[in-house]
């Protein structure tokens, strides 16, 4: 097997071809309306926003900072502008059931008009109705009525009095009522004198008195009925007068709103209510009570007068109240009270007929908000209910406004984990959010993408109010976008990172009083960001350079190799070498993964060690037993090891220990391996290489140092300038390997060796040494077993 | 209208305030009003409680029954019970009088007598006395005519009579004086009205009933009298209209109190009853 050729600098960095950028500065570039490379999301949005059927709400998935919100808002803003403006909604008093305010829909913009009309009507009622009651016509009619009734009331009494007087009987008023007594000359006869009357006379008087008493009794007992009749007739008169007064303004309003039967119906109810409360309006001095006039007001819940197209609402605090609206209370003398004018609409109301954008994580962290949202979407109507009521914590009488039918498209923004968790654990979720709009993390980097990406950067720079960028700066940004994507053939689509970088580059350009952002400003922004995040990396490097953490970068050692690992801290990550060691002695074919034994190794790492164990057995033991007891350890690793990217390094170090052949410490190795010894791609190669490069650099002059990495990882390389410079000068080399044998040859300088038909490796090759050593182990094991068996047999025979 | 010199002293405070008490709610309200007037005038209040002889006699009959004014229920009546009830009412009247008048630091006395109310009051009242009474019995019901006692006293009392009513708290705040352009005692009536207006700090309206439109002479005389007392008033000359129209005018003027002379033609035209029916406001009838 031949050793692979080292990579040249063009293979480890994909430069942005300047000829593809046909502009001097980004000023010359037009804005990009929709971001490039997000066709999947855009098609999903287009579909979801247009789809009318129930449950086709959207979930836009993507990492945080990918620009989901901005994209969705921009897309919907354009999409919704062609759609019809939805209705205005208002709550009005329910005259049949005061606790359940009615909801009325009016064409967009007419809600204000209706509110104004009703306020006008209330003002008119305040003045016109008292004026009617003050009018001469009303007063004289009332007078006539009262007189008539008073006459009827008193006539009976007068008639009785008259009749009594005609019969010489006086009707006397007592403190509590009336009594009758015989009289003469207008005065009551003294009872003593009455005794002198003849029996006939007495009988006559007494029978008359008795008759009069009965009549009086009947008359008095009729008075309540008469009074009731008066009340009814006065009420009827009041109603008639109010009807006449209201006739004009009500007629106008009914005419004006005749196109809305519900409004006309409401107006009729208002008229009936005013008529019913006619007496309350009678007090011209104090006017009707405020509480009465409030009933005729209109609570305009949704005002779409200024809305253009369908509304697109973003609710930044999607709690239950903000979504569904709430019923507020006013404190009056220590008592809380409410009425329909204190009903406040929520974002669902405002978005009705349009789109509501919500952050999935925020809505899930608000109590009951998620359940309320689902309830609205399932029922197709918004009910305003307080949380206390939903939880059943209060039982006081409160308003239950009539539910408002809702047709809203909800767009949830969230990361992928949330989407998959909700799909898995919430059985309602997929019924309600059928459209999945998955954001691309990266865009393809091909010849066509440069101009689009440049326009995207131009759009972004305008959005963040940064200076225009020069062509070089755009090229540097594009190259960095590839590095962020960790792929020469990709560009990151992460909106926030690019925007932050642009803003910072603009800051540095400003510091140098530049009018344009050039490549040096972009580079400074990248370097500064890296520096700010480098404290832990620097401490880690310092530990290595001071020898606290032992990493050898020179010489050759048996059973020791430099593996490479990546540490992710917040948004930044860096690579560093780790010493991996191995031991080998005769045994029962086991490879002890010390990390796993110490419970510091993760399952993927354990799997990788098992794979390498089986690889050893199949390659070197053939049909026989693998008589090996080996161990593998990541030295000075205390935080746990996970992943399979060290399996090549582990295999090499184990083979070195078995064959007793030293490995070159100037190399670091990364890559995973399958059971056939083929090398497979791993992640974080740029950081790993740069991490080892820094360690070598810190250890002294760079000389023939290098990294072995899977050949399939080459297209992920976007290495930084100083590594490329060292490569150009031949001080640092990167070898792409595709088989374990290549790694062995590079690390040992020996030929690995290919087995012949009988499975024997060529003499002097590395593999033959391994095979020979394993054979020796097998013999040693057998001998040991025989000795043990003999010893035991001897004992038995002795017995 | 006349410019003849005043035959009696203008200041009415020289007399007493006689208030008719019968234990009814309206008589208690009238007592309050009387006490207020007396407090302003510094006058003595004489409560008059008359045990009507007709009532006592009627209770003396074996067949006597009382028909309840509200319920219509009939129950037996006898003299002893009536005497007791009247005594109870008299005690209540005394207590009310002490409370209302004594509380204001004024002199007060209760005169208990037996006989007819009109006769007893006329026997007690002098021309300087102001007689205050509430509308009593079933004439107190809204919309009813003036009772015989009130009618009799308004016509016969030697001095001024104030017929008190249950005032509703409305913003009727003017003192309105109703005059005839041809009556003799206008001067005195206007004086009483000016005193009332001053006492209650209320504006004054003078309504002059005249056959002649405008009647500048009558208006001039009134203006002179007002000027002499440094008072001002709105003067309106009105035709000799019916009680109904007067009532409407009074409402227009937001009349809170009405002052008129016993000689006013309203009395002659038998309209007084209607005016009383129409207006639920205190009426002062001057002699």
UniProtKB/TrEMBL annotation, chain A:
<keyword id="KW-0378">Hydrolase</keyword>
<dbReference type="Pfam" id="PF05362">
    <property type="entry name" value="Lon_C"/>
</dbReference>
<dbReference type="InterPro" id="IPR020568">
    <property type="entry name" value="Ribosomal_Su5_D2-typ_SF"/>
</dbReference>
<dbReference type="InterPro" id="IPR027417">
    <property type="entry name" value="P-loop_NTPase"/>
</dbReference>
<dbReference type="InterPro" id="IPR046844">
    <property type="entry name" value="Lon-like_helical"/>
</dbReference>
<feature type="compositionally biased region" description="Basic and acidic residues">
    <location>
        <begin position="780"/>
        <end position="799"/>
    </location>
</feature>
<dbReference type="GO" id="GO:0006508">
    <property type="term" value="P:proteolysis"/>
</dbReference>
<dbReference type="InterPro" id="IPR027065">
    <property type="entry name" value="Lon_Prtase"/>
</dbReference>
<keyword id="KW-0720">Serine protease</keyword>
<feature type="coiled-coil region">
    <location>
        <begin position="195"/>
        <end position="229"/>
    </location>
</feature>
<dbReference type="Pfam" id="PF20437">
    <property type="entry name" value="LonC_helical"/>
</dbReference>
<dbReference type="InterPro" id="IPR014721">
    <property type="entry name" value="Ribsml_uS5_D2-typ_fold_subgr"/>
</dbReference>
<comment type="similarity">
    <text>Belongs to the peptidase S16 family.</text>
</comment>
<feature type="active site">
    <location>
        <position position="688"/>
    </location>
</feature>
<keyword id="KW-0645">Protease</keyword>
<dbReference type="GO" id="GO:0008233">
    <property type="term" value="F:peptidase activity"/>
</dbReference>
<protein>
    <recommendedName>
        <fullName>endopeptidase La</fullName>
        <ecNumber>3.4.21.53</ecNumber>
    </recommendedName>
</protein>
<feature type="region of interest" description="Disordered">
    <location>
        <begin position="777"/>
        <end position="799"/>
    </location>
</feature>
<dbReference type="Pfam" id="PF13654">
    <property type="entry name" value="AAA_32"/>
</dbReference>
<dbReference type="InterPro" id="IPR041699">
    <property type="entry name" value="AAA_32"/>
</dbReference>
<feature type="active site">
    <location>
        <position position="645"/>
    </location>
</feature>
<dbReference type="Pfam" id="PF20436">
    <property type="entry name" value="LonB_AAA-LID"/>
</dbReference>
TrEMBL record, chain B:
<dbReference type="InterPro" id="IPR006015">
    <property type="entry name" value="Universal_stress_UspA"/>
</dbReference>
<protein>
    <submittedName>
        <fullName>Universal stress protein</fullName>
    </submittedName>
</protein>
<dbReference type="Pfam" id="PF00582">
    <property type="entry name" value="Usp"/>
</dbReference>
<dbReference type="InterPro" id="IPR006016">
    <property type="entry name" value="UspA"/>
</dbReference>
<comment type="similarity">
    <text>Belongs to the universal stress protein A family.</text>
</comment>
<feature type="domain" description="UspA">
    <location>
        <begin position="16"/>
        <end position="163"/>
    </location>
</feature>
